[in-house]
Amino acid sequence: MDGSTDGVLARLREMQAGDLPVHGGRTLAYVYDSGLPDVDRIGREAVAAYAGSNGLDPTSFPSLLAMENDLVGFTCDLLDAPASAVGSVTSGGTESVLLAVQTARDGAPSVVSPSMVVPSTVHAAFHKAGHYFGVAVRSVPVSDDFRADVAAMAGAVDDSTVLVVGSAPSYAHGVVDDIPALAALAAARGIRCHVDACIGGWVLPFAARLGRPVPPWSFAVEGVTSISVDTHKYGYAPKGTSVLVHRTSELRRPQFFASADWPGYTMLNATMQSTKSGGPLAGAWAVVQHLGTSGYLALASSVFEAVDRIVDGVPAGLSVVVPPDSTLVALACDPSLDAFTVCDEMRVRGWYVQPQMSYAGAPPTIHLSVSAATLASVEELLADLASSVAAARAAGPVVVDPEVTAFIDALDPAALSDEDFDGLLAASGLLADPSAGLALPDRMAPVNAMLDVASPALREALLIAFLDRLSRPVRSAAG
Ligand SMILES: Cc1ncc(COP(=O)(O)O)c(C=O)c1O
After folding, report:
1. How far apart (Å, rounded) are the C-alpha atoms in residues 30 and 22?
2. Does residue 174's CB lie within 6 angstroms of at least one atom of ligand 1?
3. How far apart are CA 51 and CA 218, in angstroms?
4. 345: phi then psi, degrees, rounded to nearest 5
C-alpha cells in the first residue's frame, strides 16, 4: 500500500468517486449545493485551517468564540430574535434538537415523567432525543394538509408535557406547521415551544424578502422559546454545524454542563461534544461572511425558481403531494407506478432523489431537497423524471415474493435475532454468496419494497441489523 502523501490523497479521491456527488445540484438529499465554486473553496480552506483547533476551551481559542458569537448574531437576525436571545453552534440538526429536548426536560425538574407533544411529521431526531433523554414522545397524527393538527396536539398536552414542537418546514412534506397556534398552546400552559427550522430557517427569511408567502414561524411569534436552524443545509456551509437559539439566556441555562468533580480540568460545555474541531465552525463562519445577506438572497431566488419550475413541470405519473412552503418537494406516484423504481431510474440517469416509505396509510413518496445549483439543470431534471417514469412503468412494480412477505410478517421487531436476519437475507436473495459478505446492491428498489411491507418498528430493527453487518472492521492480514 502506497503511504506517500500523493498516494494516500489519490486513494482518497478514488474512494470518493464512488460516493454521491456533492456538487452539480443533482443530489437532491443529504447535500446542499450553492453552485458557487468560491463558496466551496472558502468553506474548505477554513475547515482545513481550523481542523486542529479545539472548541473545548473558548478562552484558549478566542477566535472560535468570536466566530460563534458572529454566527449566532447573524442567525438571530434571520430568526427575528429579540435582544435577549442567545444561541450555540452545534454539530448539526440532530444535536440542536437533542439539546432543545434536554434543555426543556431539565428546565422543568419538577416533572417526574416528562413528555413532549409533536406532530407525526416531526423529524426523527425528536424520537432519538426522547430515547436518549427519557422524554416520552407523544406523536400526534397530522391533518389532511400534512400540517400539525393543533386541536389534537392540545388534547395530548398534560401536566407531564415539557415541550411542544412544530416544524418549519417538515422534512417529508415540506410544509410549515401552524406555529402561532402551537406557540399559543404551549405559552398558555407555561410550556416551551421549539420550532424545528433545521432545514427551513436559513431560506424562509430570504423567501419572505423575495415577496413569497411565508407562514409565521420565527421568534416574531410570541411563545416560541427556541429554534434550530442548520448552517450545513441552506447556509451552504461545509458539514458539521447548526445553530440552536433560545429566546433568553435563562431558557438556555440547563443546556450547559460543568463538572469539577474530578482531578483534571473543569469540564465546561455548551453542547454535547467536549473536544470539538474548530473546522466546521470556521467553515460556516467563512461561508456566511462571504455570502452575506445579498449572497443568500440571490441563492434563495435561484432555489425558489427551481422549486417553482419543478412543481409546475412534474411529468405525468407523478404529482406534488402538497404545494411546498419552502424548498422541499414531495412527489406522489400514480397507483400503477413504483416510487422506488423511479428513484433507481433517476440514479441511473445521474440524479439522487430520496425514496420515502409508506407511512400511516399513505403510499411511498419521492423526496427532493432542491438546491440553488439545481436551477441550472432543472429542465434536464424534469426530462429525466419523465423518462424514469416511463422506464419504471415498463419495468412494472417490484413485487415482494409472498414467501418473503410471510417471513417478514412472522418476525418480531423486539426480538430480531441474527438468525432471523440471515434467514431474511437468504429468503430475499440479498446474500447470494454468504462468504462474500453483505454488499450494497446497485438497485435499491427490491430492498425498499421489502422494507416497505414491514412495520416501522420492524424496518428499524432490520436496518439496524443491516448497519451492524455493514460496519465491520477491516483488519490487516498480519493482525
Ligand atoms: C426538519 C429537520 N430537523 C432535523 C434534521 C436533522 O438534521 P441533521 O441531519 O443535520 O442532524 C433535519 C435533517 O434533514 C431536518 O430536515
Report:
1. 9
2. no
3. 33
4. -65, -35
345 in contact with ligand 1, CB cutoff 6 A = no
pTM of the model: 0.97
Mind listing the pLDDT tens digit for each residue in 148-192? 999 999 999 999 999 999 999 999 999 999 999 999 999 999 999
Q: Read off the C-alpha cell for 92.
A: 448539526
Express each pLDDT in 404-439 by its tens digit.
Answer: 999 999 999 999 898 988 888 887 777 666 666 677
Query: Could you tell me how far CA 273 lies from the centroid of its own chain?
Result: 19
Q: Is ligand 1 within 6 A of the CB of residue 384?
A: no
The answer, yes or no, to whether any atom of ligand 1 lies below 6 A from the CB of 94, is yes
Burial class (CB within 10 angstroms; exposed 0-12, middle 13-18, buried 19+) of 144: exposed
Neighbours of 405 (CB within 10 A): 16
Q: Positive or negative CA dihedral for 151, 152, 155, 157?
A: negative
Ligand 1 mean position, distance from CA 318 (Å): 26
Beta bridge partners of 244: 88, 228
Which of 198, 239, 371 is the best mutation target for the ligand 1 pocket, counting ligand atoms within 8 Å of the beta carbon and taking the most? 198
User: Residue of the nearest CA to atom 10 in ligand 1?
Assistant: 93
